[in-house]
């Protein structure tokens, strides 16, 4: 049934039915309609939460003329809210965490419910929060939904709580809608519990053979807290901290007692260790509860064992002068067995075979001597390892390092540190510096090295140069005369005497080679090197240029010859390579002689029926092979042979580009009419003994040698 909303009325409406009201805008006709009296009705239920207002326009027209009698007017219909929505907790489920032992009133979290009703109209959307479950530990603010601590709580007692919050609209009045939400509140840990050892006294054992770093044992101080609040550090108090150490296992929070120093059963059989456990992270708020640490005692007993011998020192440093004769004393090492039986000890060197060759040790008293002279310049320090072994228990071995320093003896004379490349110009003036020199010495010096430079005695009187000692381990080489001639003397060999400050002092003579250079007064090193090179091979600059020019001419001439030959090859033989191969007939099988009747099928070659046609030139090789085989059974008077010769002659005459091989043909039979007759032995039934070669004497000088070989033999036989 339509519900009345309101009425519109024009001042010109006389209620005689002459006017008509028209409604337009949002929901006109579909939701709202207006009658002839201007009353507005709604056709259906409205939901404010979907649309809270509608904008409409009303117009009054004359029914007859259909013309407006007034301007249209706009009005708004607002939908008034009613309480038709329940509160909702949209952000649930809620989980909150608060530190344990938090003071009363500490905020835990806030829950918020929403209501779809109009909060600006009445109390439909005004919510009120209350606690359904969670007393007496928590409380909730009625208007804000903030949950607070109502008392201090210990996580170690209970670490999780479920709190139920209710929200009611209409400020909790009768007929109000409500909703509830569950909040899971977890108590986080704080460091409010100190570590505690379960025992006041612990017992452990360690062998006196145990090496440094051995784990002696573990102990645990328990802490009710968790995570980092249960993390702790362990300490060893008192003198025992020199022998034992303790670290914390980060996973289990156990204290691990380690051996920091070897223990000795014979010296001390029991150690009382005071161990303290302290929380790593301390909360100052709970310091009033007492110190967050605990102390216990660990009694560690040393277990006796058969120990290895012990050297009097962990390492030895010894000295010996270089060059000392073989068998010289270097030093003595000593080790003893600390056990009660006091077993004898045997010594040996085990560090490297080369050190065994340099040193030896007396296995009974530990005396180390040299086996050959030592050279400090080769090796200034020698490191050897000496072992001491119990004679009664060879498995018990100990080691000690021995460092042997070879003391220096002044046995090396000073010398030039490098080869000096020294030049002097032909036009040099007296007193001109041409080279600075220095020296090195392989020996050590207790003080800094000091070198003294001078000319050797044999070069003092007639030298063209002088040496000036700079008193700083360097010296300068100066010219003593003016003018040098390369033609007269190209090299000067200057003996330099160098003296060191060793004990005793040593001297050496080092030769400085001075090369005369073709320059004015300033030396150009590259130019002078070039001049020295030419002098060494015995050439002048002009001669070297001439040699290079000749080599260049020969190279050009050689390249020209190669070019001409390549051009001739291209001009004389332009044909392709395969054309040259047409005149090569090759058989890779060898017959067995005249009596071989199985190598070839002779009957196939005896046919006299030959069909020959003119073929292109590119197949001439095949044609030659065919005709050649046919000609084996025909003679020079055969028509087939004459036809073959005529065709080949015609091809050679009509082909101007054919190479010369067309004029050379090889056939399997000889021609007739020769004055010499046949020279072939094929088909001959006579031996050389039955033939007369005297006719060769009349053939002229070209056959003189042949006639001499056969005619003379015949005459001799006759």
From TrEMBL:
Keywords: Calcium, Cell adhesion, Cell membrane, Cleavage on pair of basic residues, Glycoprotein, Membrane, Metal-binding, Repeat, Signal, Transmembrane, Transmembrane helix. One of its GO terms (biological process) is calcium-dependent cell-cell adhesion via plasma membrane cell adhesion molecules. The chain crosses the membrane at residues 543-564. PROSITE patterns: CADHERIN_1, CADHERIN_2. The keyword Aminoacyl-tRNA synthetase does not apply. It is found in: Cell membrane. Residues 10-89, 90-197, 198-311, 312-416, 416-527 form the Cadherin domain. It is a single-pass type I membrane protein. GO terms for molecular function: beta-catenin binding; cadherin binding; calcium ion binding. Pfam families: CADH_Y-type_LIR (PF01049), Cadherin (PF00028). The keyword Repeat applies. InterPro entries: Cadherin, Cadherin-like_dom, Cadherin-like_sf, Cadherin_CS, Cadherin_Y-type_LIR, Catenin-bd_sf. GO terms for cellular component: adherens junction; catenin complex. Cadherins are calcium-dependent cell adhesion proteins. PANTHER family: CADHERIN-19, CADHERIN-23. This is Cadherin 19. It comes from Chrysolophus pictus (Golden pheasant).
